[in-house]
Amino acid sequence: MNKRRYDSESTKNEIMERASFLFSQKGYNQTSIRDISKASGYSKGHIYYHFKNKEQLFVLLAQKSMQDWYKKWEAKESVLSTATEKLYGIGIHVLYNYQAPLLKSGQELASNPKSSPESVKKLYDLAVVPMSTYRTILQKGVDNEEFKTGNLDEWTVLLGTWLGGLCQLTNTQELNVLEPMFNQAITIFLRSIKKGGNENEDWINR
Protein backbone atom coordinates (compact mmCIF):
# COMPACT_ATOMS: atom_id res chain seq x y z
CA MET A 1 0.00 0.00 0.00
CA ASN A 2 1.61 3.30 -1.01
CA LYS A 3 1.96 6.25 1.37
CA ARG A 4 -0.59 8.45 -0.43
CA ARG A 5 -3.26 5.76 -0.21
CA TYR A 6 -2.38 5.08 3.44
CA ASP A 7 -2.62 8.77 4.35
CA SER A 8 -5.95 9.08 2.55
CA GLU A 9 -7.44 6.14 4.42
CA SER A 10 -6.00 7.35 7.71
CA THR A 11 -7.52 10.79 7.15
CA LYS A 12 -10.91 9.33 6.29
CA ASN A 13 -10.91 7.11 9.38
CA GLU A 14 -9.92 9.99 11.64
CA ILE A 15 -12.68 12.20 10.25
CA MET A 16 -15.20 9.40 10.79
CA GLU A 17 -14.01 8.85 14.35
CA ARG A 18 -14.38 12.51 15.29
CA ALA A 19 -17.70 12.82 13.46
CA SER A 20 -19.05 9.79 15.31
CA PHE A 21 -18.19 11.39 18.64
CA LEU A 22 -19.88 14.67 17.69
CA PHE A 23 -23.02 12.99 16.34
CA SER A 24 -23.25 10.97 19.55
CA GLN A 25 -22.82 14.02 21.78
CA LYS A 26 -24.72 16.71 19.88
CA GLY A 27 -27.08 14.79 17.62
CA TYR A 28 -27.33 14.84 13.85
CA ASN A 29 -29.12 18.15 13.41
CA GLN A 30 -26.82 20.08 15.73
CA THR A 31 -23.58 18.80 14.19
CA SER A 32 -22.20 20.66 11.19
CA ILE A 33 -19.36 19.99 8.79
CA ARG A 34 -17.67 22.99 10.37
CA ASP A 35 -17.88 21.27 13.77
CA ILE A 36 -16.37 18.11 12.31
CA SER A 37 -13.63 20.13 10.64
CA LYS A 38 -12.72 21.84 13.90
CA ALA A 39 -12.79 18.61 15.92
CA SER A 40 -10.77 16.57 13.41
CA GLY A 41 -8.29 19.27 12.45
CA TYR A 42 -9.03 18.76 8.76
CA SER A 43 -10.41 21.44 6.48
CA LYS A 44 -13.93 21.27 5.10
CA GLY A 45 -12.29 20.65 1.72
CA HIS A 46 -10.63 17.52 3.10
CA ILE A 47 -13.95 16.32 4.48
CA TYR A 48 -15.83 16.93 1.23
CA TYR A 49 -13.08 15.12 -0.65
CA HIS A 50 -13.91 11.94 1.26
CA PHE A 51 -17.63 12.44 1.83
CA LYS A 52 -20.28 13.96 -0.42
CA ASN A 53 -22.01 15.63 2.52
CA LYS A 54 -22.84 15.26 6.21
CA GLU A 55 -25.69 12.90 5.37
CA GLN A 56 -23.48 10.45 3.51
CA LEU A 57 -20.89 10.61 6.29
CA PHE A 58 -23.50 9.71 8.89
CA VAL A 59 -24.92 6.84 6.84
CA LEU A 60 -21.42 5.36 6.47
CA LEU A 61 -20.96 5.61 10.24
CA ALA A 62 -24.31 3.92 10.86
CA GLN A 63 -23.39 1.10 8.47
CA LYS A 64 -20.04 0.64 10.21
CA SER A 65 -21.81 0.56 13.57
CA MET A 66 -24.08 -2.24 12.38
CA GLN A 67 -21.09 -4.14 10.97
CA ASP A 68 -19.47 -3.90 14.40
CA TRP A 69 -22.72 -5.13 16.00
CA TYR A 70 -22.65 -8.21 13.79
CA LYS A 71 -18.94 -8.90 14.33
CA LYS A 72 -19.48 -8.83 18.10
CA TRP A 73 -22.33 -11.28 17.71
CA GLU A 74 -20.25 -13.61 15.52
CA ALA A 75 -17.60 -13.74 18.25
CA LYS A 76 -20.19 -14.62 20.89
CA GLU A 77 -22.06 -17.06 18.67
CA SER A 78 -18.92 -19.08 17.98
CA VAL A 79 -18.98 -20.56 21.50
CA LEU A 80 -22.70 -21.40 21.46
CA SER A 81 -23.63 -24.82 20.11
CA THR A 82 -27.40 -25.13 19.93
CA ALA A 83 -30.05 -22.85 18.49
CA THR A 84 -31.54 -22.57 21.97
CA GLU A 85 -28.26 -21.27 23.36
CA LYS A 86 -27.98 -18.88 20.44
CA LEU A 87 -31.45 -17.45 21.12
CA TYR A 88 -30.55 -16.69 24.72
CA GLY A 89 -27.24 -15.32 23.50
CA ILE A 90 -28.75 -12.99 20.92
CA GLY A 91 -31.25 -11.73 23.49
CA ILE A 92 -28.47 -10.60 25.82
CA HIS A 93 -26.43 -9.31 22.88
CA VAL A 94 -29.35 -7.12 21.78
CA LEU A 95 -29.79 -5.86 25.35
CA TYR A 96 -26.19 -4.72 25.71
CA ASN A 97 -25.82 -3.37 22.18
CA TYR A 98 -29.12 -1.57 21.66
CA GLN A 99 -28.08 1.78 23.10
CA ALA A 100 -25.81 2.57 20.17
CA PRO A 101 -24.34 6.07 20.43
CA LEU A 102 -25.62 6.98 16.96
CA LEU A 103 -29.18 5.74 17.50
CA LYS A 104 -30.71 9.10 18.39
CA SER A 105 -28.89 10.86 15.55
CA GLY A 106 -30.14 8.24 13.12
CA GLN A 107 -33.69 8.89 14.24
CA GLU A 108 -33.14 12.61 13.66
CA LEU A 109 -31.87 12.05 10.14
CA ALA A 110 -34.69 9.65 9.27
CA SER A 111 -37.36 12.09 10.49
CA ASN A 112 -35.81 15.15 8.84
CA PRO A 113 -37.88 16.07 5.74
CA LYS A 114 -34.70 17.42 4.12
CA SER A 115 -32.99 14.03 4.24
CA SER A 116 -32.74 12.23 0.93
CA PRO A 117 -35.00 9.17 0.51
CA GLU A 118 -31.91 7.17 -0.45
CA SER A 119 -30.19 7.90 2.86
CA VAL A 120 -33.31 7.15 4.87
CA LYS A 121 -33.72 3.84 3.02
CA LYS A 122 -30.12 2.89 3.77
CA LEU A 123 -30.74 3.50 7.46
CA TYR A 124 -33.91 1.42 7.49
CA ASP A 125 -32.12 -1.30 5.53
CA LEU A 126 -29.76 -1.74 8.49
CA ALA A 127 -32.63 -3.42 10.35
CA VAL A 128 -32.15 -6.35 7.97
CA VAL A 129 -28.96 -7.33 9.83
CA PRO A 130 -30.48 -8.24 13.21
CA MET A 131 -33.63 -9.64 11.61
CA SER A 132 -31.63 -11.95 9.34
CA THR A 133 -29.59 -12.98 12.39
CA TYR A 134 -32.76 -14.01 14.23
CA ARG A 135 -33.98 -15.92 11.20
CA THR A 136 -30.69 -17.79 10.81
CA ILE A 137 -30.89 -18.96 14.42
CA LEU A 138 -34.50 -20.05 14.04
CA GLN A 139 -33.69 -21.89 10.81
CA LYS A 140 -30.85 -23.72 12.55
CA GLY A 141 -33.26 -24.80 15.27
CA VAL A 142 -35.70 -26.20 12.74
CA ASP A 143 -32.96 -27.91 10.73
CA ASN A 144 -31.50 -29.71 13.76
CA GLU A 145 -34.99 -30.50 15.05
CA GLU A 146 -34.75 -28.41 18.21
CA PHE A 147 -37.71 -26.36 17.01
CA LYS A 148 -40.97 -27.30 15.37
CA THR A 149 -41.51 -26.68 11.69
CA GLY A 150 -43.25 -23.33 11.46
CA ASN A 151 -43.50 -19.95 9.79
CA LEU A 152 -39.93 -18.64 10.11
CA ASP A 153 -40.77 -15.22 8.71
CA GLU A 154 -43.53 -14.79 11.28
CA TRP A 155 -41.33 -16.02 14.12
CA THR A 156 -38.58 -13.62 13.07
CA VAL A 157 -40.90 -10.62 13.11
CA LEU A 158 -42.37 -11.63 16.47
CA LEU A 159 -38.94 -12.11 18.05
CA GLY A 160 -37.60 -8.85 16.63
CA THR A 161 -40.67 -6.92 17.76
CA TRP A 162 -40.55 -8.41 21.23
CA LEU A 163 -36.86 -7.72 21.78
CA GLY A 164 -37.21 -4.26 20.27
CA GLY A 165 -40.03 -3.46 22.66
CA LEU A 166 -38.05 -4.65 25.67
CA CYS A 167 -35.11 -2.53 24.55
CA GLN A 168 -37.14 0.59 25.29
CA LEU A 169 -36.62 -0.21 28.97
CA THR A 170 -32.89 0.42 28.55
CA ASN A 171 -33.70 4.14 28.61
CA THR A 172 -34.76 3.97 32.25
CA GLN A 173 -33.19 0.86 33.81
CA GLU A 174 -29.73 -0.59 34.30
CA LEU A 175 -28.84 -3.22 31.73
CA ASN A 176 -27.82 -5.88 34.25
CA VAL A 177 -31.20 -5.49 35.98
CA LEU A 178 -32.93 -6.23 32.67
CA GLU A 179 -31.00 -9.45 31.96
CA PRO A 180 -33.51 -11.75 33.73
CA MET A 181 -36.39 -10.16 31.84
CA PHE A 182 -34.70 -10.68 28.46
CA ASN A 183 -33.91 -14.29 29.37
CA GLN A 184 -37.49 -14.83 30.47
CA ALA A 185 -38.73 -13.41 27.18
CA ILE A 186 -36.64 -15.96 25.29
CA THR A 187 -37.88 -18.76 27.56
CA ILE A 188 -41.51 -17.84 26.86
CA PHE A 189 -40.79 -17.57 23.14
CA LEU A 190 -39.12 -20.98 23.12
CA ARG A 191 -42.16 -22.62 24.68
CA SER A 192 -44.13 -21.94 21.54
CA ILE A 193 -41.54 -23.17 19.05
CA LYS A 194 -39.57 -25.96 20.74
CA LYS A 195 -40.40 -29.56 19.99
CA GLY A 196 -42.29 -30.87 22.98
CA GLY A 197 -42.86 -27.31 24.24
CA ASN A 198 -42.64 -25.96 27.78
CA GLU A 199 -39.29 -27.58 28.51
CA ASN A 200 -37.23 -26.03 31.27
CA GLU A 201 -34.16 -24.35 29.86
CA ASP A 202 -31.04 -25.41 31.76
CA TRP A 203 -28.66 -23.33 29.66
CA ILE A 204 -29.97 -20.05 31.07
CA ASN A 205 -28.91 -21.09 34.58
CA ARG A 206 -25.36 -22.10 33.70
Automatic annotation (TrEMBL):
Q: Name one Pfam family in it.
A: TetR_N
* UniProt keyword list: DNA-binding, Repressor
Query: Where do the HTH tetR-type domain residues begin and end?
Result: 9-69
PROSITE patterns in the record, alphabetically? HTH_TETR_2 (PS50977)
One of the entry's Gene Ontology molecular-function terms is: DNA-binding transcription factor activity
DNA-binding region, as residue ranges, is located at 32-51
The Gene Ontology biological process terms listed for this entry are:
negative regulation of DNA-templated transcription
PANTHER family attached to this UniProt entry: ACREF/ENVCD OPERON REPRESSOR-RELATED (PTHR43479), ACREF_ENVCD OPERON REPRESSOR-RELATED (PTHR43479:SF11)
Q: What is this protein called?
A: TetR family transcriptional regulator
Q: Record the organism.
A: Bacillus cereus
